[in-house]
Design goal:
alpha/beta, 13% strand, five-stranded parallel sheet, 342 residues, 11 strands
C-alpha cells in the first residue's frame, strides 16, 4: 500500500515523530498551548495509533511532491491551492469542507449525504478520549453531581441562569460545569452528564457524538439534546435520555435519581455500547478506510487528467462560496434568539 503522509504544524512534528503513544495530558497541554483540538484528535492521535498498527505513514510539516496527504481543516486554513500530484484528504471536524481536498473524513454520518456526497465524505467515528478516569464504582446509583464537560462555546445560555441553578439544588443535586481541558478526562465523581448547545431546531450535523461515547466509556449516564450525531447511533432508550427543555432535563435527573435500577441499567448498557467505539475498533475502521477505500479512490484519481483534476478543484471552490452565501442569507432570515441573562 502506498505511503500515507500526515500533515501537522512544524512546532509539533519533531516532538511526535519518535513517540508511540499520546496521553490525554499531552493532548490537554497542546490544546492549552493553542494547538487545534482537531489537529490533536484527527492527525496526531490517528497517526500514532495507525503507525503502531503497521500502517506505512509519516508525520510531516511540508507538502510532498506527490502521494496521499491527510491534514485537518484548521491546519489547512482558508487558502485553497491546487495540490497538483498530491491527493489531499481533509479531516473536516466541525468546520467547513475544504476545496483543495479530493476526499473528506467526517465524524457525523449525516454529512455523508451532503450535496449527494459531492465532497467525497466518509464517516469515521471520533476517537474516544484517551486516559478517561471512569466514575468510581463505589458511587453506585448515587445521583448528586450533574456535570457539563467541554468548552464554553458549546454551553447553552440557559445553564448560566439562576433558575437553572436553583432547580438543580431543589432536587438535591449540584451543577458541576467543567471548562478546563486538563480535567476533561476525569469522570470519577460525576453521576450524570448533561450536554445542550441550544434548545431549538438545529440538528448540528457537523458535530460528533463524543460526549455520549465518552460517557459510555466513563460509566456515566447522559442526558442530551437530540442532536443528529447522538440520534444516528442510538439503539435504545438506555443509550441516553433525550430532552428538549430545561424542564425535561430536571425530569430526567429526577427519573434517574428515583430509579436506581434504571440508573445502573444505563451504566451497564454503556459498557456494552462502548465496544463499538473503542480505540481498537476505530483503529480497524481507519486501517480498512486506507486499504479498501482510499487506495481505490487514489487509483481513480491518478487516472484523471490535469484538466479533470483542476475542474473538480474549481467546482469545489464554487460550491464552498455558494454555501457561505446560503448560510449568510439563512442567518439573516433566522437570527439566533438572545437569551435574557439574569
Amino acid at each position: 500500500m502506498k505511503k500515507i503522509y500526515f500533515f501537522a504544524p512544524s512546532k509539533i512534528v519533531e516532538e511526535f515523530k519518535t513517540q508511540n503513544s499520546l496521553t490525554w495530558y499531552k493532548v490537554a497541554e497542546l490544546i492549552s498551548a493553542g494547538i487545534s483540538s482537531n489537529t490533536t484528535s484527527w492527525i496526531l492521535t490517528t497517526y500514532l495509533y495507525l503507525k503502531d498498527h503497521g500502517l506505512s505513514c509519516e508525520l510531516i510539516d511540508y507538502i510532498p511532491e506527490e502521494g496521499i496527504l491527510i491534514a485537518d481543516r484548521d491546519t489547512l486554513g482558508n487558502k485553497y491551492p491546487y495540490f497538483g500530484k498530491v491527493m489531499l484528504i481533509c479531516t473536516k471536524g466541525d468546520r467547513e469542507f475544504h476545496p483543495s481536498a479530493h476526499l473528506h473524513i467526517v465524524h457525523n454520518q449525516m454529512e455523508t449525504q451532503n450535496v449527494a456526497n459531492f465532497w467525497n465524505s466518509y464517516y469515521i467515528p471520533h476517537w474516544p478520549q484517551p486516559d478517561i478516569i471512569p466514575r468510581l464504582k463505589e458511587r453506585g446509583s448515587t445521583v448528586k453531581n450533574i456535570a457539563y464537560i467541554g468548552s464554553t462555546s458549546n454551553y447553552t445560555e440557559e445553564f448560566k441562569s439562576e433558575e437553572w441553578m436553583k432547580a438543580i439544588e431543589e432536587i438535591g443535586c449540584q451543577w458541576c460545569p467543567n471548562f478546563n481541558p486538563n480535567q476533561w478526562n476525569d469522570y470519577s465523581n460525576i453521576d450524570i452528564i448533561v450536554a445542550v448547545r441550544s434548545f431549538g431546531q438545529s440538528t448540528y450535523t457537523h458535530k460528533p457524538a463524543s460526549k455520549l461515547v465518552n460517557g459510555w466509556h466513563a460509566g456515566v449516564p447522559c442526558i442530551l439534546a437530540p442532536e443528529s450525531a447522538f440520534m444516528t447511533i442510538r439503539k435504545s432508550e438506555l443509550d441516553f435520555i433525550a430532552i428538549n427543555s430545561i424542564g425535561e432535563i430536571i425530569e430526567g435527573v429526577k427519573k434517574l435519581k428515583n430509579n436506581p435500577q434504571l440508573y445502573l441499567s444505563m451504566i451497564q448498557n454503556g459498557h456494552e455500547r462502548k465496544t463499538e467505539f473503542s480505540k481498537e475498533k476505530i483503529t480497524q475502521i481507519w486501517l480498512d478506510y486506507f486499504k479498501n477505500y482510499v487506495m481505490e479512490k487514489y487509483e481513480e484519481w491518478m487516472k484523471m487528467n490535469e484538466w479533470q483534476k483542476r475542474y473538480d478543484w474549481a467546482q469545489r471552490n464554487i460550491l464552498l462560496k455558494s454555501k457561505r452565501v446560503e448560510n449568510r442569507i439563512n442567518n439573516y432570515k433566522n437570527p439566533t434568539p438572545k437569551v435574557r441573562k439574569n
